[in-house]
């Protein structure tokens, strides 16, 4: 358990804020305080990759190297809080979901074209799966694998799916 003068007890209120971690050798590092391990007092910081803050690395500072943690000073005030980073990440996730949906639609159309070109009868179901030969085989999103009990049909469908790559 954490002792009364542990780093966790002293600085846990700064979690999610821009901070400056003072190290035993007199240097310091800036970053957004992600967490402090309550058992070991190890510190996890989100540090910007470069000047443009385009991404972040996680830097773990072991407790025996930490002299103290201060709220962000002048040099680190341009760092966002953890809440702002979370919102930014959610925006990126929504756009990647839209991208994956459009990619899935495109693969579905390409598979339909390949099946038509090879004279394979198919139906698109309500769940966007593609049933081939009246249900003898099924290809489900993201259209990379086939469910089929007939080995010959399975092999042929796998060959057709390889044409999409």
From TrEMBL:
A GO BP entry: spliceosomal complex assembly
CC annotations in GO: nucleus; SMN complex
Ranges for domain AD: 75-165
Protein name (record): AD domain-containing protein
